[in-house]
């Protein structure tokens, strides 16, 4: 007869699950899935070869797209035209004007099946010299991919923001000079605008600045041509009046500028006026010298060294027949003989 405790133990043993065998995780990838090992070749170069300068890294900064056209060739005459107007990178050079000249040359040449931008990328470096050539050579290799990239980097390098600010200030403070005609003032004003094509001034601002920079005579002339107040006209009419007036280059005579100094009249006068004054002064002096009579020559009176009389010592009565006369004659004879010997 089984007791209650025995039946309880047998039920507990029946509920226990026998342990199962778990295969360990394989950390090694199968051989068929592994990549073949990389076999490095032994470097058999000598010391001299290993120390040689590398031959890489000499690529140009400008990347020229591949030209697949047949018989493409840059003629020598085209290269000569480009090199005749070289850009050196000086402060007074205008990079905008250089771009305009270069575009004018390349626009006359057409190559079948070749984009004009590719031709520009090839030709443009030939127009550099001095600081400009050094700049393009120092640019990172393959950093310029298009013609627009090249123009942008070229302008930003040789036309910095400070130059833009200076030119904008010159345009704003423009004034007609004292010795400047209307045509000359208008031409100089347009030179400033062309030197800074990104000045940002509207046509209205340009016309207003130029009109207020003129002297009163030229302002009255514009008002007369406008039949009233010049500023009452529309901008396109104002521009037409200015262009028409500027065609008359000798609209007024240029005054002679002569600034007289308080200390001296010659240093403050312009060179032309000073030269004219010197010429007039020389002519007047020459005329004065010719008109004057020659001064009379004063006769030399004889004086005797023996008695002080108004006669020669040779004719002195005090020594006539006297020993003094013989001594003097002997002295004179000795002097003459010594001089001759």
TrEMBL record:
Keyword annotations of the record: Nucleotidyltransferase, RNA-directed DNA polymerase, Transferase
GO molecular function: RNA-directed DNA polymerase activity
Chain intervals for the UniProt region annotation (Disordered): 1-20
Pfam family, one: Retrotrans_gag
Comp. bias regions, Low complexity: 1-16
Domain Retrotransposon gag: 123-215
Protein known as: Reverse transcriptase domain-containing protein
